[in-house]
Structures are given as structure tokens and as C-alpha cells.
Amino acid sequence: MRKRSRSGVLPGISSFVIIGVVLVIIPIFVFIVVDNIKTHDKRVVESFKERGVALIRSFEAGTRTGMIVMMWNAEKVQRLLIETALQEDIDYILITDDRGRILAHSDPRKIGRLYAPFPSLPQKNDPSTAYWRILKGPDGTQVFEVYKQFTPNRYPALRGRLKQMLGRLPPDRRRRLLDDWFGIHFFPQGGAKPVRQFIFVGFDMGKVNAARGAYIRHMAVMGIILLLIGCVGMVALFSIQAYRSARSSFARVKAFSDEVVANMPAGLITIGPDRSVTSCNRKASEILGYEYSSAGDEPATVLSLPPVVRSVADKVMDTAGNVSEEVEYTGVDGTRMSLDISGSVIRDASGRISGYLLLLKDLTGIRKLEREVARSKRFATIGKLAAGVAHEIRNPLSSIKGFATYFKEKFKDSEEERKTAQTMIYEVERLNRAVTQLLEFSRPVSVELADVPVSELIEHSLRLVENDFKRKGIDYSVNIRSCRDKISTDRDRLNQILLNLYLNAVEAMDEGGRLAVTVLDGDDGKTVVIEVSDTGHGIREEHLDHIFDPYFTTRSTGTGLGLAIVYKLVETLGGKITVESAVGRGTVFRIYIPA
Predict the structure, then answer these.
(1) Residue 342: is it exposed, middle or buried by C-beta count within 10 angstroms (0-12/13-18/19+)?
(2) Residue 256 lies in a domain
């Protein structure tokens, strides 16, 4: 049974230590945050209160000036109140009597109603004293309300002057002024004191509350940061020893893993997210013949990898998935090998891509053994068949051909019998050619290498089939673009390869066409490529993988051994052959021969 570790959250640190540190720091953090929030709220209240008192006094001064200069009445005061309430953040301004009846309001529709909730005020209060409260509006928003006694006439000495101005007014205007709620502040009747009136200013607290929330969040974040800094500082003290121990263990593990990777039998290349080659083990360097390093100012990148390896790396990075391909690779020394290249994505614990991995396996020896085994089996089977065919068929063919020739001469005056005999002779010869090809295919091929002039070999091979070209109306051309005048190969075998390809092209161009032979240097600089292209009917895609198989043919008169012999001869010469074709667009054979 697996036992659960009782170590702390971090290696070498007890969980109780971390809990103790947190329990000490959190109360301090909470106290600081709460105290700062209270101080902030007090400043907001004082700011609103000062602004409200200043606004009320300015309003009183404005109404007083209006009375002195223009003998204002309640209607003028109402208009000034509406204009004043248009200022930013002011929700409303209103004036009431001591019973709460609204005398003036920034919303004229509410004049005459009772203002609720009306505050409880002392019967004897200082008119200059201002009060405040926080109310909840109809829409749920908070309103900071400042209110005090409305005292527009703070200077009784002005009454004499105002009475003189009042006497000069028309009687109806004078009567309206003396009867409205504003005029009694300046013209009390019968010596009685004017009724107490109160002015209320409501400020919208939406922006303030938003700022308060932001401030609280800021304080919380700062407190959490300080808490984390404190915790990290405490934990760091206990982490030093654990880190030293872990570093020593990691160094031992890393040295072991590096040694394993360096000596593993497969090549391994790692690539970073920035497409740089971060590591390349010894086997990969041996396979590719290059030494990659990420050290220095300009580390190796994917672009510096050989094309076949870079192609797999690009696919892995493009698809972010696993890719596996078997490719043919020619090393810097010209050695050709079969490589199995597997690519995969390296992800971190969160699932993000942290790099890519390429694994290279040299399958050259395995594939060579597979080919030799398959070839041996094929040759053994065909050899047995060829021996039987030669023994059982070839000898009777001579007799059949002899009798057919005899009947042809005997019935030369009879057209029908003569044609029948001729057909027998033709079919016997065709069967004899098939047997000859079969024997040739099964027979081991010997190679005699010599320096062969390329252009001379091509011209000689074309002269052998020139009559076939003329008979079918086929034009041909030769383009020598190779820098090599001679190649080391077997003249007869290469000539036989070309003849088979020419005859194949002739069969594909029933109504004439064009055959082109091009010779050029291989990309690796160590091979010569001979291209034989025609403008014939082409090869169907599903047949391309089988054209080099023995006895595979799409022609009723073919034996299916021509291209199989070509493939065998090219392989014997140490080269390879490829084909490109499309129905209706012709065919291109490329022979890669070691130079």
C-alpha cells in the first residue's frame, strides 16, 4: 500500500509554521484595511458636508441679492433653485416649511407635497448649523443630504432700504411680494417672526460609492500583497535549506538522465518553442553527420536540420501532434540510409507546449535484410518456375514453330490457311520472348563497372529504337545538363534499362508524341539523374504502386516483366528509380545512378 507523505506544503517546511505566520499577519492586515476605510469614509462625509453648506450659503446669497437688486419673489427663487440643481452630482434641492410642506423644488411637480422622511429638528437651533444624513432614493441609489434652516435675510439693517423699494412697487406686485413664502423673510407682517423654513440639498453618491469600492479593492489587494510578501519572506527562510538539498538531488538525477540520453541507441533531438535546437545526443549526431548546439550567440535552429528531418519537425509543430515517417536520407559522406523519424510534443504540467521531441532510428540494416530476404524468396520462386517453363515449354515451342512454318509453306496458295499458320508463328515467338524475359529476370545479374560517357550512352540507346519512333511518329530530344562527362556504371545494364523505358514510352504513345531524355546532377552532388519522359496516356494512380511488380501489366500483349527487370537492374547498380504520372499528361521516370 502506498503511504501518503506527511511533509509540509513545501519540502522541509512544516504546515504549522505556514499557518502560524498567516494567523499572525492576517489580523494586522484586517485592522489596517478597516481603519483606512473608516478614515476614507470620514473624509467623504466632510467633503459632502462642506460642499453642501457652501452651496446653500451661495444660494441664500443669490436670493438675497435678487431681493435687494430686483425685488425677487418666490417665482424667481424657484427658477434659481432649478438652475442651481443642474450642477453635476446634485440629485435635488428643495425648501420646506417647518412642517415639511415643500415650498420650492428642483422638480416643480413636487411643490405643495409633504417631504418625507422629514428630519426631527430641535425647536431652538442655530440657523447657521448644518446637518447631514444618507438616504436611499426611489431607484435604490444612495443620496447624501445636507440641510439647514433657510435664512436668506441675515442682515436686518437692510429692511429700511427694502421698505423704501417696496413702496415704489405697483400695488398688485407689492401685495404678491408680501404674501409669498419668500417675501416674509424680508417683510415680516405685524412684527411677527417669519415661519422657519429649511433648505435641503441631495448629492448623488453613485460615483463616490464606486470610488469607495475601488478604494476598498485597492486596499484589499495591497493588503494581500503585503500578506503574501510577509508569508513568502517567512517561508523563504525555511526554504533555503530545503533548496540546497533539492539542488544536490537534482544535480545527481540530471547527470544520470543526461548520461542515459547521450548513450541511448536512438538519435534524440529536442526543439524549443522558439524553433531552436536545444539538444542533440551522440547517436543523432552520428546519424546526421552534424554537431548541433544551442550554446553561443546564435544557437542552431530547425532551419539548420537536414530537409527530411526538418519536414517532420515542421509537421509536428504545425499539427501539435505525433508524427512518424520513414524516409531515405543521404549523409554528408554520401551514405544512404533508411530513417524512422518520430516526432512528438512536449507539454508542461498545465498542458502548454514547452518543446518538441524528434527520435531518429536507423533502419538501413533492417530494410536491407528485408529486401534481401524478399528478393531471395522472389528469385527462388521465379527461378523454379523459370526452370520448369524452360524445360516444359521452350522445347515444344521449337516443334510447334517448325510445324507452323511447314503449314505456312504448304498452304501458301490458300490465304486463310497461310494467315492461320502465320498467327501460330507470331504467338509462338511472343511466348518464346516471355520465357526469355522470365529466365533473364530469374538469373543473377553480374555488374562490370567502367567509366561510361553519358552523352554517348544516351545517343547509342536512342539509335536502337529510332525505327520504332519513326513508325509511331514520335519525336525525341536529349538535354545533357550534368557537369559530369562520365559516370562509373555498367554500360550494358544501363543501356538495357533505358531501352525498356523507351519501349514502354513507345507503347504509351499510340498516336505519336514526344519523348525527352534529360541528364542532370543529383541534389547530393554524388548521383546522376536520368529522366525519361513521354507525352503518352499516363498511368492511373492506383497502378503506380504496382508497376514494378513482376507480371503486373495493363496491356493485353504485355508480359509484366519489363519494368520489373528495370527495377532489378537499377537496384543492382546501387541506384533507385521513381515515377510520376497522371492520366492524359504523360509519365516521367527518374533513374538515380551513383556517379
Answers:
(1) middle
(2) no
